[in-house]
Amino acid sequence: MSDLLGLDSFELPAELSLIVAWKQDSDYEGGEVSILKNMAEHLKTACQRTLDAILGREVRAYTPDMHLEENEEVLVVDDPQLVGDSQVAAIVLPTQPLQLINAQSLPKRPLQFYAALARTSEGDVAFVRKTNPHTPSAPGACSRSLALR
Amino acid sequence: MPQDPVPPTKSSSERPEHVDAAPNSLRGRIADTTVEPALFLSSYAPLFLILAIRFRSTALVVACAAITGVGLAAGITALVRFRQVTRSGWIVRTVEDRGGEVAGYLATYLLPFVTVTQPDVRDVIGYLLFFVIVAVIYIRSSLIQINPTLYLLGWRLYAIEIGDGWNGYLLARGPVRRGTEVTAVRMTERIFVSYAAGHSG
Fold first, then answer.
1. Which of A74, A115, B13, B154 lies at a C-alpha separation of 20 to 30 Å from A129?
2. Tens digits of residue pLDDT in A119-147
3. pLDDT band at B137 (very low <50, low <70, confident <90, very high)
4. Is the ipTM of this complex over 0.90?
5. Do B28 and A102 touch (CB under 8 A)?
6. Interchain pair B10, A102: CB under 8 A
7. Size of interface A-B (CB pairs under 8 A)
8. A26: Cβ–Cβ under 8 A, 6 or more apart, which residues?
9. pTM
10. How many Å apart are CA A112 and CA A132, to the nearest integer?
C-alpha cells in the first residue's frame, strides 16, 4: 500500500532546497534559504533515513479517530483535495520561487516548520519537520552556519 | 537536521498559489549582503578602466585601476561562490532576451568622455557623488540584473516568467527557450544564474 505515497521508486536528487515557514498574523509565510551543496548532502542523508523508515512501515489512511502503531505504521491523507487546500502545501511545494531569506534572519523569525524540497521529473516531494530548527547555542557548544553569509 | 520528519508530501496541481510575503526588514530581505554590491562594482569595472586610461593624475589612475581590479574580482568571485549553492529546476513559461537593456545602461559609460583629464578636488567629489547615487539606484532598482561586464564575459540576460506569474531574470551562457526546464542557482531575490551550457530542449 506504500504506492499510495508514490515513493516506491522515488530517488532523492543530489540537490535539495531548504524551505522555512513562520507565522505572520494568522497565516503562514514561507521562504527559501540558500544552502551549499555539502549542506544539501546532510539534508539528503536525513531525508533518505526518513524515506527508508516510511517504506518499511505499513501505510494507512488517516482518520481523526484512528490509533497509530508507532514504528509500524505511517498515516497518509488520501484525499488530494485536502493537500490542495493546504496552506502548508503551498509553502513546501511552491509553484513559483519563494522569497529568499537571509539565513542570519532565521533566529528572529517565529519558525513553525521547515522542509527539504526535492524536485524531480516525477514531481516534487517535501520532507517536512514541524519544529523550529533554531536553538540558541549553549556556552561551549559547536554551531554551524546553514548558508552563505 | 531532520531526525524524525513527518512523511513527505507529494505535489498537487490543485494546491493554491503562494503569495510572497512582505519583507520584514531590509537585512532579512537581502539573502546575501555581499552579492549586490559585488554585482554593482563589477558592472562598472570597464568604466573605471576607461577612466584610468583618461586621467593624467597618477593617484587617480591607480585608484581607478584598483577599482577595476576589485570590480572584476568581485563579479567573478560572486559567480564562483554561487556555483557551490544548490540549484533548483523551474519550467520557463516565457523568456525574453534583455540584451537591449544592457545597451541602454551603457549611457553611464559616457561619463569618462565628458570628464576632464586632470580634475580638481571639486570635480572628484562630484564624480564620487555621482557614483554613490548610481550605486543606490542600482542596488535598489531593477538595474541590478544589468551587468555589461558579465556580458563581456559571455553571459546573457533573459527576462523569464516562472510558475503562475513570477517574473525575474536569468543569467545564462547559452540560449534559453520557452517551455524548457532551467536548473539554476538563486543569486538574489529576482536573479537566477544557470551554469549549464544551454536550455534548448
1. B13
2. 887 788 999 998 886 666 555 666 665 66
3. confident
4. no
5. yes
6. no
7. 178
8. none
9. 0.74
10. 6
